[in-house]
Amino acid sequence: MKTSSLKNMTLTLLLITFVAAAALATVYVFTEEPMEAARLAKINRAIAEVTPPFDNSPSDEVAEVVLDGRTLRLFPAKKNGVLVGIAVETATAKGFGGLITLMAGFLPDGTIYKTAVISHTETPGLGDKIEKSKSAFSLQFEGKHPDSFQLAVRKDGGDVDAITASTISSRAFCDALERAYRAVSSSSFQ
Amino acid sequence: MSLITKGILKENPTFVLMLGMCPTLGTTVSAMNGMGMGLATLFVLVLSNMAIAAVAAQIPAKVRIPAYIVIIAAFVTILQLLMQAYTPALYETLGLFIPLIVVNCIVLGRAEAFAAKNSVAASALDGIGIGLGFTLSLTVIGAVRELLGSGALFGYPLLPSGGVTVFVLAPGAFIVLGYLLVLFNKIKS
What is the pLDDT of residue B41? Predict the structure, then answer.
């Protein structure tokens, strides 16, 4: 360990930060492409999960709708050029642990086909039951049309059975889904 | 060799030194998460230990802590970028905790207590030992919590009845850690 002087302290820190920055920049250049690919693969997986089989590339035909100050992305799924479903990337900030991002799939007539959770930070064991693998909560929406099926939990006068002890997460899920439906009905896909 | 084994038993970072409790309690919801966090810390620990051992003699005493932190933060960010690119699924579950490795007392603790005074090779072994100890502890805590909390192990369902929710929540983390500490001290003595 050397004795400290202003000159060697400044020089050392300058050198270390410079080397660190250079190392980070190098790694970033190499990981940028796979990182983007991973993000895209995830979106594409979610789209395939929530729409009927299609043969186009929905992420290339994305349309954007701004609702409540939030940008929703709509991915049209087509088979032989005919629209078979619309996947909507929707989000809500009303979750118990913060932002919940969903992929909601609709049939062309507005019926909910399937849903998938893209990311969330809900409590493990409680709010994370919005995930399909953890409970049947999200399955109750399948095949329902939001015009006849109120997207609100029963406590709020809707038709949705909330997750026990996770009303806030359930409400947030409905909020995101409801916004997705509004985006679909206001879009030109219908 | 003793440098490696001491990290697992005599100086186990979780059960003996009681360092790095934040990621220990936060990420051990399942055995897989615990192991992932442990291995991530192992990666940073080994590299930062080696880098710091190599440059420690040239660093003026008064700025050594900021210098170490920059080195550690650089390795953590590299790890974060690599995970995002190549293991997106693991990054999703651990993402929140990866940046916190920077302030994990184990990493800075080993830099200050060991790497700054020893050779690069010895520091690498020390990093491997402490990192393995941390990984093992986190995996064990994660396995116990996953088994009791969700009735599964490494994602495979074992108990058909599910589990007791409290064990996947924060209080369960403290309870499991406490009992494992008792057990570990019993075995050690």
Answer: 92
